[in-house]
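U., I forgot to send this yesterday:
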Amino acid sequence: MPREGKWSGPTTGPTTYALGLISRRAACCYYMPNTLLGVAVRVLEDAGSTPALKTAAAETLFVSLEQGVPIPTKAPKLLWAWLKISPASRSWRSMEKLVFRGIDQEEVRADALRLLDLDDAGDDLRDLAVDVLRGHDHAVHLNDTVLMGLLERASSDARVQQLGRLLHAVHTARCLPRGLLEAVRDRWAGSQSPAIREVAIELTAELPEADIEFIARMLEDPNADVRTSMSNHIDVHASDSGLTLGLVEARLRVEGHPHVRAGLLRAQASLLEEPGGLGRRRRR
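Result:
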């Protein structure tokens, strides 16, 4: 086993090779020398390190996390800082790995929230922030006040889509109040943007039961993409499946768009085949 100790070797050339080799081989190993992890941290700290070397160092730390190997406590903040300025490194990232067990990440979480709320951050950086915040250990700390603040200031299609993904993660982590989910859904459903109305429809999957009035309203939306989205999100296991089936069949009689019809026909078939449902009674 390698000895513990400080790295005194070069930070270019052989080190790049070593970091790259260990990151590629780590999937087969469950031991990562602490010395090399220390080198990776110092490479990320060093302003003179080349982008290639920093990418290798970051990947080494990410693979260590994937294998359950403890990393230095300062690594999360360094990884986050590197990801923000290195779009190329984000092509292989798995942001859930930034949810480090046993390591305080409040600084990372706070900075991700700051980016998510910045008008001039750009969609790529906000996507990065959402990917980090969606991790369970971050999502569970996002309270209703923080979420509503973000929602109040989100108006563009991209920002609403990002917040839709974040709401799903937070709801999975700690179960959002039904009233909050319905309020957000109805707000987005009233948007002038079809893309935002589609996000509202996707949010219905988080609600405990189908809302017949909402389904009927969205199936009459003037935009075919919105109607298609609604037809594909009909809850075929709802307790009031009889009402849902009646609504689907009524819409099928007047709907002319092929994509919407396809979704409605799938919903109809599923409702008819629902165990103990109307389909079985009709065939008797």
